[in-house]
Structures are given as structure tokens and as C-alpha cells.
Amino acid sequence: MCQVDEDYHDQLEHVDAPSVSKKCGKCKEATAAVVIRAGDTYCRDCFKEYFVHKFRAMLGKNRIIFPGEKVLLAVSGGPSSCSMLSQVQEGLSQNAHKKLRFLPGIIYIDEGGAVGQSVEERRRTVAELQALFRATGFPFHIVPLEQVLDLPGSVVTVAPSPSEQPASAYKAAVDHFIQSDGGSRLTPQNQQETSHPDVQESHTQSLQQLIASAKTLTAREDLLSTLRHHVLVYTARTEGYSKVMLGDNCTRLAVKLLTSISLGRGAQLAQDTGFSDSRYGDIILVRPMRDYSAKEIAYYNRMFTVPSVFIPGLDTMTTDKASIQRLTESFVTKLQAGFPSTVSTIYRTSEKLQTVCRSSSTADLRCLLCMCALDTAVEDASAFKATQISEQLSQTKSPETQRQIQGTLQQSPSRLLPPDSAEEERIVGEQQAAEAAVHLPKMTSLKSLMCYSCQLTIKDMTSVEHLPQYILSEAQRRQRRSQMREEISEFLLDEGDGGD
Amino acid sequence: MPVLCSSCAEKRAVLKRPKTGHSLCKDCFFWAFEEEVHQTIVAAKLFRHGETVGIAASGGKDSTVLAHVMKLLNERYDYGLELMLLSVDEGITGYRDDSLETVKRNQQQYELPLKIVSYEELYGWTMDAIVKQVGLKNNCTFCGVFRRQALDRGAIMLKVDKICTGHNADDVAETVLMNVLRGDIARLRRCTAISTSSEGDGVVPRCKPLKYAYEKEIVLYAYFKKLDYFSTECIYSPNAYRGYARTFLKDLESVRPSSIIDVIHSGENLSVRDGVKMPVQGTCNRCGYISSQALCKSCVLLEGLNRGLPKLGIGKHHRLHGKILSQQPLTEKEQRKLKPVDF
Question: Organism's domain of life (chain A) (predicted)?
Fold first, then answer.
């Protein structure tokens, strides 16, 4: 009923009373162990096969990860990313059928400083995860989020992507790899681990100041996820990885889609929720878990004991209406309970969306924070223009009242001031305006470099002083460049790449 | 300490604008609201000088405010439009007959010609009779489809060039969210357009001048201007799927007031991948109305109602169009599928 293309079956579906000795729907031999959807029952082995097959199929169908590539796995400790880790392990093991052929590395970003965890708690979590990572044998990096304060400006620029390998080259690359006995190259190297020494207290405080400067939880979460992405990209670039795998599952991506729409990120939906995200140019973010619902992952983790660590986030244990992200999550989960096809319908919608961002556009036309193509071109009849008009109209004087003011001024030469209280109000207002005016130019100039939704995030911040240095210096660099371009605009021949 | 209006800084502010949070006095608010609608009309080039425009009036707050503002702007900025009121009577006792009284009052207040078309005369069915057959779950589909055609037919009877409806920002945002939840990519692309672009006989282009006006601001405007309107929920609507999208949107607005415009902005900037199958516009083989299938939806729905198979229009039914057109009886199996479910 809730889907446009829904088909109705011939008769009312017979609902079988659940019986203990129900057979697996696939092999029809063994007893069923899990019910994924109504009518979809699996025994243990078939479920494992189904789960593993989905992962391979997702990677194989999209043909993005070439053999021999270094891929960074972003593990947050939660069930989805730990499941992804175990799938990669399975896929790379020697006896796997059609084994995977890339070189993985793990990264965990320690956000305890931003969330408000104590140093002790952070150390404990890191130790747990270290043990987990060591068991896999892959090289891993444990990076505190405080590192974001030291990042270079190159993080928010688009690096040119290596020559784009078309999908047809994939098959050739795989064959070549097999022939040249690539197997030997993939034996696990000496496991490297990089974990930074205990973070300086002052850095943690700066980070907390930055997060606290965003007034609303929505803006905080948005800012946090942006900083997280920047750290991911920076680590990938410095350690030589060309792809990053994120562990977002279907349910989370459905929530993300609705949240993005509510935040004004319609133009960037395909990149936020699609399989591959190429906004950074050389580093491609991939989401192989996007076909799995949270339920399937939970079942798998339990049945096959995949270890995971729970780490509280910014919105853990907050009320439904604390932030837009939290609100959307509770909305989708409640709707899913009543209409079981909600999440998969939303997921299918996200598959039909396109990336607007083209890799050839210069970095200057990208948002400063989220690195997606700007969607703030003010067209004549658009929501953005309407917002600007509303702002203007609520602040300027209307012609009628202006005339009235003029009239009263002419009548009484000594301008009568309204009663004291209003006068105070006005003075206070002027002072506040003066203070705001100091911050205003910086904030306004930053806003002009951002896309619609990042502008909303910045608007929620009390001041932009606390933003990490790399963002502020990159903003200044772009402003200088655009000034330059304005000066010589009449002499430039084409609109294309002016080089960076 | 009285707060001064942030626009004229002279008078005391009497309201806070939901859209921007500024405090304004009455006159400045009226001026801002009317000016925004004017800017929307001018920027989107909704009307041309000398056109006849039908205002779809239901008696509710949106259409009452729309009629008022259109008349005001027509005079203030000399649009040169000839305005008329067009109303649809769905035949819902206790709801529609009350709101129609409001429309008749509006007609006298604004001195605009009024035409009322009813489902009874167009289709032979009132909504009350339809709900008796269909039940309380899918009836909004019938009402919506029938109303669209009713408006067009009424517009042709009145000989207007355009129709304007009172859809506000909240409505458009709800529609975007609902289309995402239902996976309707085709509608998702079209729903944020401020005016329809279909040409052809039997179809009158329609537009939404209030597209960027918040519902709360419309109520504020009507309240301070002392406009009278009818404000009850349709008695058949509680189970509509749109209700979920509406609750969600209201919650979003309470977290961040600009969410409504943000959702519209997202909807306007969505781009669909090439190669996704989209419906093609054609005409209905039976009544000639625009349709993307062989038979238009209202013909299918009517056929279902008349044959006592109310589920004919709900769900996939393309394969049956040929049979319906040629008046063949449906097989037993097909009939069983389409009968209403007894509880």
C-alpha cells in the first residue's frame, strides 16, 4: 500500500503459524534458524552463504576496487563496521572461493574527546579495539580526532584522481593479476600499527570548544561527521591508501537519506548515500555494507560471534527531538515497524539518484566543509532565493513606514525620542549589533564558500574562530583566488580549469 | 520591555515570524508576506497580463488567504488579471458543505464570480458513497484523483487560462517526504515545480503562488487580517499515509524552523540518474484526459466503483486496461482479487 509499484498477490497470503520444525527456505533440508523477512527463512549455513555472497556480489558488481589496491577500512567499533571487517577477513582467507584481492588496513578514529569521555575510558576502549585489530593481522591505525587541529590545508582540496580506469579494464586487471601470481604479494605483511601517544589535554580542550561552539546538536553532529571524514581522507592520503570502506548499513543509509533531505542536502544525496563517493578526487569512499539491513547484521554477528565494541556517540541516550538526525532515526524505525518495506523502498530511491558533482570542476567551486559541488546558485524562482528575500524583507524598512518616519520628522523639528525603555533596547541592540559586526564579516565570507546545508551548520555556531586552522586558511586562500579572478575576469578565455 | 519591530523599528512587535524568527509589527508583517508572494509570482513568471485566473477555493485557510492576497496584489501591482473562484464539492457531509458556505461568503466579500462543481454531477458518486464501498483506508486516492479532474473540468467550464491553488510550503515539503518514503521517483522530480507544464486539450496549467509561505504564517496572516475560514480536518483523513509525513515535518520544524524550506530546497536540487524509467505522457483512450497509461486513473477508479470492484484502481492494474476498454467481463480470479476485503 505504501509503495507505488506494489503488486498484490492472488489471494490473501496464508500466514503459517510459526512451527518449531520449519524448514530452511533455500536448501529445504535443514531446520530454519533465522527469519529475515516474512517468508524468508534460512538455516545457519544458508544464511552464512547468503550473507557472504552479498558482500562479494556488492564488490564484484561495482568493480571499483582493483586487485592489489590498498583499501582502508573505517571501523567505528559498531556492529556494522565490525561485520565488514570480518567479511574482509573471510574474503581474504586462503581457502575462500574467489577470494578478494586487495590489501586492507584498518583505521579507528577515537572521538572520545568530542563526546566527553574521560581519558581512562578512552584508553580502555582503545585497548579493547587494539586487541581486536591485532587478531586480524592487518595493519591498523588508531587516530584521535584531536588530530584534526593539525591537518594541512590540502585535505579540503580535490586532488586529481589517477587515470580513471573504466570498468572494462577491470576484467583485464584481474586476469593480469592472477597470471602474475599476485597471490604471493598478498601475504600479510608484518603488522604495522600506528597509535598516537596520549593526546595533549590542551588539544582535547580546543576540540571541545570547537564542538561546543555549535549551539544545536544537529550542527554538532554535522560538524563531527565532516571532521571525521577529513581525518579519514588525510590518513588515507598519507599512508598511501586509494580507497576507504565505510560500514554504513541499509537502515542507517535510509535514515541518512531522509536526514540529508531535511538538512537541505538534496544536491549531494547521491554522494552521501550511494555506493561510491568520489568527491575528494583521489580517495574514493565505498560503502559495501549498504545492502544489509541492521537486522541481518545483528543476526549474523550473534550467530557467528563477531566481536564489536559499543562506543557512545554525541546523540546516545538523547530524546527524540534533540537533533534532526535523532528524530529521523526514530521516525524511520517506527515507520518500519508498521510498514516493513519502508527501509528497502527508501534504499531503492537512493539507488536512482545521480551525482551532480563532476570530477573536473575546480576545488574553488566546491563547498569548503563537505567538498561537494555548490548548490547555492541563486536562480530566480528557488527556495534559496525565497529565503534571502524573506531575510531582507524582515529587516529593511518598508516604504510606507519610511514615509511615515519622514513625515513625523518634518512635523517636529526636535525629534522626539520614544520612552526610555525603548531607547535602552535600541542602545543594547546597537551594541550587540556592533559585536556581531566583528564576527559577521568572517562568518559571512565563510558562508559564501559553502553549500546550503553547511551554511546552516555555520549559522548555528556562535563564532567561527574555533574552526581548525586548515579550514580557515583554506577559506582565505580561496577568497584571495576569487579576488584575483575577478580582477582578470574579462581577460580569461574560457570558464574551465584555471588550475589550482 | 516591549520589543520593537525589526523592520520599521518604530512600532511594537506583535508577532514573531516562524520563517525567520524576526519580531515584526502587524503592518510590516502584512507587507513582508504580501511582498514575498509578489516576488514569487514575478520571479517564476506565473501569470501574464490580461489572463483569466481561477482560484481553487475550498474554504480552508490556504485558499481564503490566497483569494485575499491575489485580489490585493492584482490591484496593487496592476497584474491585469481577471480572477474567479472555483470550488469542488466532494460530497462529504459535515465537512464540505460547511466549508462551501465559507467560499460563498468569500465570493460576496471579494465580489468574484464563483463556480462549484461536484463529484455527483461529474462522476455520479459522492465521497460518502465511495467510502461506504471502499472503506477507510484507500479513500484519499479516490478523492485526490477525482478532484484533479474536477478542477480541470470546472476550469474549462469557466474558460480560465490558469488555475492557482493554495498549496503552501508545508504541503510541498510533505509531498517531497512522502514521495521519498514511497519510492516514487517520477513524482519526486515533478512535485517541487511551482507550476505544471502540461499543454493540451482538457488540461489547464496550474501554479502555487503560496509555495514558499509557511502554513503558520498563513494562519498568522488570516488571524491578524481577521479573515474568516473553515478549519476542520477531513473526517476521512486520519488513516492517510500522508499523516506520517506531516507529523515528521511538524517535528522537524520544532527542531529547526528552517527545515521546511530546506526540504523544498533538497527537492528542487534532486537529480535522477539517466536510464531510470519514467512515465511518458499520453492521453486516455476513453475520456481523452492526460494519462501515462492506456486508461487514465479516474476512468479506472470509476470503472471499479461501478462494477463493485473498488480495489481496481489500487495496486497494479495495467494488464486489465485492455479488458476494461473492450468491456469484457473479468475472470473469476481477477474479480476475487479486486473485491473489497471484509473485516
Answer: Eukaryota
